[in-house]
Design goal:
The structure is a homodimer.
Chain A (H helix, E strand, L loop, with lengths): L1 E3 L8 E6 L11 E16 L7 H12 L2 E11 L5 H18 L7 E8 L6 H13 L6 H7 L8 E9 L2 E10 L12 E6 L5 H14 L4 E2 L9 E6 L11 H24 L7 E9 L2 H12 L2 H8 L5 H9 L11 E4 L6 E7 L5 E8 L3 H9 L2
Chain lengths: 378, 378
């Protein structure tokens, strides 16, 4: 299994990115990811009760079918808290791309990221769709990966290649983070493409497992977005035997896990104002959910995060944050270990010695730069 | 009903404060609050699973009796995460004060605030107890109110006077905040004294109601302390008729509510690095708990707090934080109103138009100074 920190699209996938004018200064703000074959699709969305319009539309489409051929994305506007008009516009976005690709309608998923509560300039998007479609190519992913960013400081891509028998399979992930971003834009989008030939059930199952351990185990500022979306397309173009269970499924799961985890870590590394990358390992919990909750409670504690920024080995704050989780930990059983805080990468170990489950969560520190970024925008 | 922003001890109460040497530079760090008569006592403690030693000791005492005559407090050390030795030392603290006051043991409640995880210098405390007791007086509260502080920037006191029939009743509250404080010291302590003649049941009930609407509705940084304690002593020295229910109970509840809310607001105003005092009113909820949860979710959002600091009227962040609460709000029903952000005092109104319940929570903004305070200590 080989890991590349760049985007290499799997067989049968193309992408493109253009500037449609939502962002100022002709910056790339419209991306398209396309599969030549209908691809089995699995997706996970934010649990925020205020959902962006694109999530409402995608969920409706996904109810009727799990076969899609494209994901169209705009950045610079989240199309969220925009009412029924916003939903209508997200539908138009999808339909205009489907038309240009000569696909049946409802075959194109959409995603948006950017400012909340402003009307999306659908006319600008529609005008640029023909150009977007005409530019589709294997190398187009270089533009697409940048067109989905808001104020991330770098594009987030990872590719994993592995074999099932003699058949080479590729998984390629592209993400935008909740990092270095202007206010209202704390949205995480992640798209993963594979030419694996896999059953719908195995695809759903694998995505569920991987998201739980990657995107759902990271936090920059504890603020849940209205637009978070992870979409996985599998078009089968590798011609490999059908993956469903057993060793081939395990390999696929391992590869997907690598892609998800790597993207998730990049999002944290690009966290707003971050100066430290912090890995928190919780051991000795009764189950994964408990371990994760303890980890996230520590990761979201402003007192812990500022201590990490200040390189202050303040274990009292770790204990207090763990105790505030509501989980019945016992003072006399707790062990805490902190790596050297002088380094950029820090690890924290919390062992509560109750059971055998563990979880790892990732976060960044809280810095004056975070406040500057988020206070001074407008 | 008259409100004074100073401490006027009710009939039969005395206090004192001395420097025992836990804090450097002979700063006041030991306080005693004393009632000449046994006082009915109600108390509320943190729900953090890691409890400071004083809470374990107080809870044990309170199981056996609700009549106490003193509260002894040290600052500069939280005596938390200090194991069975810490608990033993908290017991010694209580007993040494009881001896000096010639009270039966278990009649003195104790409280600690300061750094977590360091042994408490009980010898220094014991050596100073005779001086502490000898200095008890009505005016001693001026020293006591300062001796409970860690790095608060001001002492927090409030007194409410009202009549039941011709009988004057006084309630006096003294608190220390989670504000302007060095790492590990995010502890809130609050002591309220009254000469009201009230039944134990009415006392408990009133404290429960008031804490719910005051101390439990404030947040500075979302970090729950291991030491939070609110203790209310009622010694009956006013000679008023016994308060249990009806109009006299309503008056007492109103007075206690004023004291609690005023202290809670002062704690927020003295929040670490705070430049804004923010009142969040949530309306149209199905019940108080739901309204409060929505309010606290907004109050604890770093994105919201930095927007307030930046005077950035960013309602998208309020919506996103409300949606992340897990409460099923509906986009089309939501109304948000923000007062002018140029002022020091800001109010936010969120109406979710579902039911008839409301709640008000108080918080401060998140500023570079907060990070400076919490990162640079050590």
């Amino acid at each position: 299994m080989k890991v590349y920190k760049k985007a290499i699209l799997p067989k049968g996938f193309k992408a493109s990115g253009v500037a449609c004018g939502i962002k100022k200064g002709r910056k790339l703000d419209l991306a398209l990811f396309y599969s030549e074959l209908p691809a089995k699709t699995a997706a996970k969305f934010t649990t925020n009760k205020i959902e962006a319009a694109h999530i409402k539309v995608d969920k409706r489409y996904l109810k009727h079918s799990k076969l899609f051929q494209a994901i169209a994305v705009n950045s610079g506007n989240a199309n969220c808290f925009t009412g029924s008009k916003g939903e209508q516009v997200a539908g138009e976005f999808s339909k205009s791309v489907a038309r240009a690709l000569q696909l049946n309608k409802n075959k194109v998923l959409v995603a948006s990221t950017g400012i909340i509560g402003k009307p999306l300039a659908i006319d600008k998007i529609k005008k640029s769709v023909p150009e977007l479609v005409s530019k589709l190519s294997g190398k187009g992913v270089e533009k697409a990966k940048n067109a989905i960013l808001t104020t991330d400081s770098f594009a987030k891509t990872v590719t994993v290649k592995f074999n099932i028998g003699n058949q080479a399979i590729t998984l390629c992930g592209v993400a935008k983070g909740a990092g270095m971003i202007a206010p209202d834009m704390a949205t995480m989008l992640s798209f993963i493409f594979t030419d694996a030939n896999i059953t719908q059930g195995a695809l759903n199952k694998a995505l569920g497992i991987c998201v739980k351990q990657s995107f759902n185990c990271i936090t920059v500022d504890g603020c849940m977005s209205t637009n978070d979306s992870v979409i996985l397309l599998a078009n089968g173009a590798s011609g490999s035997k059908l993956i469903n269970s057993g060793k081939s499924y395990d390999l696929f799961l391992e590869a997907l896990n690598k892609v998800s985890l790597e993207l998730a870590k990049m999002i944290v590394k690009d966290g707003e104002g971050a100066s430290k990358f912090i890995e928190i390992n919780v051991k000795g919990a009764n189950n994964f959910a408990q371990a994760k909750r303890l980890g996230l409670n520590i990761a979201n504690s402003n007192l812990f995060k500022t201590a990490m920024f200040g390189e202050n080995p303040n274990f009292g704050r770790i204990i207090a944050a763990a105790g505030a989780s509501g989980i019945g930990i016992k003072e006399k059983n707790i062990r805490v270990k902190l790596s050297s805080l002088k380094k950029k990468d820090i690890s924290v170990l919390l062992d509560i010695k109750q059971g055998k489950s563990s979880a790892t969560v990732f976060t960044s520190d809280l810095t004056p730069k975070y406040i500057k970024i988020n206070a001074e925008y407008n």
